[in-house]
Amino acid sequence: MTTAITLTPETGSALVDRWTTLWNGDYTDPDTFLAPDFRIRFGSNPEASGTDGIRGPAAIVDMIAGHRTTHPGRRYAVDGTPTVDPRLGRVAACWHVTRPDGTQKSGIDLFEVVDGRIATVWSVTGVRRFAH
User: pTM for the full model?
Assistant: First the structure.
């Protein structure tokens, strides 16, 4: 019998932090925080990028590693505290990326968490940095 893992603000924030470190190039142990059937859904032109076909931790690590190769020096950070809805098993986080030239843009990710791991990410990226 599988025991359901309760999503708390602490576990939601920890998952978002680990996701952010993945985007910053730490590819260690993705199976510990990404579900085996993980998938990501980008809001911008998924047909052209083929990103809707990404399935599983290894595939997202490969995609991010390729992205970091073609866009070196970018640093990702979470803005504020993620919002956690334990009832729905979802976490929402605002983030920004700083390019090597100092310019920034923002995004919002919505995470579906199943049994303590990220199962799905819906990601929308803008062309500017949101101000607080």
Answer: 0.90
